[in-house]
Amino acid sequence: MKKKIAFTFPHLHKFGGGEIFCEYLTNFLKSYFNVDLYYYKSFQINNKIKFDKKINLIPVQSKNFILNYLCKNYIFIGHLYILFYLQNKNYNFVFSGAGEFFHSSKCFQYIHHPFYSLNIFHYLSLGLKKTDIIKIFLRFIISIIARLIFFINNKKYSKTITVVNSKFIQKRFQQIYKYNIARIVYPTFKIPRDFKENFSRYEKRYNDFVVLGRVSRDKNTLDAVNFFLDFKKNNSYLKFSKIHIIGPIDKNLREKIEEIKKENKDCLFHGYLNLRKRDKILRESKFGLHFFVGEHFGRSVLEMQKFGIIVFCHKSGGAMEIIPSNLQKFNSIIELKKNIKIILKDPTKRKKIKKMINKKIHQFSDNQFRKSILKMLRNDK
C-alpha cells in the first residue's frame, strides 16, 4: 500500500521554475505515494501547469481579511500559513516544495532559496530590489517571527531533512541555520538531453543571442535586452543580428516591451513557446545572456548550454556551478563587453569553450534528479 504524503507549495498562479518543479515532482511522486498537494488559494492556478488527476489538490485560505490579503500577495507568508494549517494533519511525511518547514511527522524541505534569512542582502536573490523598502521591511519582520517559531520548535525543525539546489544555496542555508545540514540535489528535472554537434556545425548557426526564462523585473530581462541593443549599435562590425527573448512575460512589463519592439525589429519577444518552437531557436543560435544576480541554480543557463549555446552569465550564485569558462562570466558591463568581443573575434576560443561546456553539462540530467529524490524519500540515508 502506498504511503500518504503532503506536498506543500505556496502559490500556483505563476509559471516559473518553482511552479514547474512542483508540477514535475508531484506528477513523478504519485507513482510511488498518494499525494495531497496543499497550496494557498490566491489566484487561479496557471493553465500551463498540468497536474495528474491522481493528485489531490487542496487549497488553503484564511477567513481573516488582512491575513488572507498578506498570504495571497506574499508567497513566504502564504507558506508559513500552510505550515500551521498542516500541524495536526496525519501523513507519513510532508514534503515542502518551497521554503523552510517542520511537521510532527517526518518532514523534507527542498530549498530553492531560504525564505527567512535575516540578511537583507539575501533578498536580492528572492527578486527584491534595493528600492523595495516596504517589501524588504515586511520580509525582515516575518523572517524574525518565523525564526522564533523554528527556535521554539527546534526539536522538530532540526530533524527536518533539507535538500538544496546548489552549493551556493547550501552554503547560504547553513550560514543561516547552523544546526541543519543540507544535501544537494540539482533541479535537473525536464532538462533536455545534450545536443550533439561538431564545431563546424555550430559555426553555421546564426550569430543570434537568446535570453531564456520568465521575462520579469527580478530576472533583469530588460537590462539584458537593452545591453544587447546598445552593444549591437556600437559594434556593428561584429556582425551579430537578433536577440530572442523566450519566456512568459510579466504583465507590468508589457508596455515597456511594446515600446522596445516598435523601435527594434531585431528584438523578438516570443513569450511562452512550446518545446518544439523553443528548441528550434536554441539549436540555431550561438550565444545567450543571463543577467539575474544571485541565481539560485540557473535552469535556463543549463538548458541553453544543453543546446550548445555559449552563455554569458553574471558572476554570482549557483549558475557558476554550471558555467565552465571565465570568459562567460562577468561582474560588470565593461567586463561583459570585453568578453563578448574576445569570443566573437576568436573561433579558437569558441571551440575551446564549446568543449568545456560539453564536458560540464554531461553531469546534469533528468534521470539523475529522479534517482536522487526517490532514493532520499524511500531510504532517508
Account of the 3D structure:
The protein has two domains: 202 residues, Glycogen Phosphorylase B (Rossmann fold); 163 residues, Glycogen Phosphorylase B (Rossmann fold, 3-Layer(aba) Sandwich). It contains 14 helices and 13 strands. It starts with a strand and ends with a helix. The protein is α/β, with parallel strands linked by helices and 381 residues long. It has a seven-stranded parallel β-sheet. Strands 10-9-8-11-12-13 form a six-stranded parallel β-sheet, with helices on both faces. α2 packs across α3. α1 links the parallel β1 and β2. The model has no long low-confidence stretch (mean pLDDT 93).
Provide a quick synopsis of the model.
It is built from 14 helices and 13 strands. Helix 2 (65-73) packs across helix 3 (75-86).
What labels would you give this structure?
alpha/beta, Rossmann fold, 2 domains, globular
Strand elements, count: 13
Largest sheet: 7 strands, parallel
Instruction: Give the name of the CATH superfamily of the largest domain.
Output: Glycogen Phosphorylase B
The CATH top-level class label of the largest domain? Alpha Beta
Secondary-structure class: alpha/beta
